[in-house]
Amino acid sequence: MRFPKLVLASHSPRRAQILKLLGISFRQITPLINEEIEERTSPANLVKNLSRLKAESISKKFPHELVLGVDTIVVLNRKIFGKPVNRKQAIRILKNLQGKTHTVYSGICLVHLQKKFIATTTEKTHVTFGELSAQFIYDYVQSGFADDKAGAYGIQDQGAIFVKKVNGCFYNVMGLPVHSLYNLIRCYEQRYQR
């Protein structure tokens, strides 16, 4: 299957890895937006709004291209966990998540400014962590794997050891739900490629 070329409004190597896996041609540009977490909005609306902000900020520079914005957060008992600000916080997050089920939310937005196209969607996946030793958590965080990841872990690296069960899209936990992206691309192509 052929996909349109994208501009990925993200610095995430995991999202780039997924797009490469799918055979989607893209270039990657980091959006400069405030990703402050607004606790008063629902998790689904938060990630939807942030993904749209990212896509729109880059589409202003590339109005003739299809821009993809994505945002991912982790939620446990209504508390939102974004990227840890430091390794001490990463350890606290992982200790909070262990032995419990949390929810990973991603918002996806496709924007083509010149064609006045904008489409957004959200995905959620439930992830259950097992119990782990404090030493393993410490070693994982010190390895750098927790840096710059929502919830302070990556399911595609040693963080897979934390995960006892996944209910929903695996790629959503990595940061880019593939089927949701496919549906947005289909929406774009149905409108403009025929």
Question: What is the gyration radius calculated from CA atoms?
Answer: 17 Å
Please identify the top-level CATH class. Alpha Beta
What general outline do the C-alpha atoms trace?
elongated
H/I helix tally: 6
Structural class of the helices, strands and pairings?
A: alpha/beta
Comma- or semicolon-separated keywords:
Maf protein; elongated; 6 helices; alpha/beta; 194 residues; single chain; 35% helix
Topology:
Elements: E1 6-9, H1 13-22, E2 26-29, H2 43-59, E3 66-76, E4 79-81, H3 87-97, E5 101-112, E6 117-129, H4 134-142, E7 163-167, H5 170-174, H6 178-192
Helix pairs in contact: 3-4
In a few lines, what is going on in this structure?
The chain contains six helices and seven strands; from the N terminus they run E-H-E-H-E-E-H-E-E-H-E-H-H. A hairpin with a 4-residue loop joins strand 5 (101-112) and strand 6 (117-129).
How would you portray this structure in words?
- A hairpin with a 2-residue loop joins strand 3 and strand 4.
- The mean pLDDT is about 95.
- Strands 1, 2, 3, 4, 5, 6 and 7 form a seven-stranded mixed sheet that branches.
- By secondary structure, this protein is an alpha/beta fold.
- The protein has a single domain (about 5-190), classed as Maf protein, CATH 3.90.950.10.
- It is built from six helices and seven strands; from the N terminus they run E-H-E-H-E-E-H-E-E-H-E-H-H.
- The longest helix has 17 residues, at about 45-60.
- About 35% of the residues lie in helices and about 25% in strands.
- The chain has helices at about 15-20, 45-60, 85-95, 135-140, 170-175, 180-190; strands at about 5-10, 25-30, 65-75, 80, 100-110, 115-130, 165.
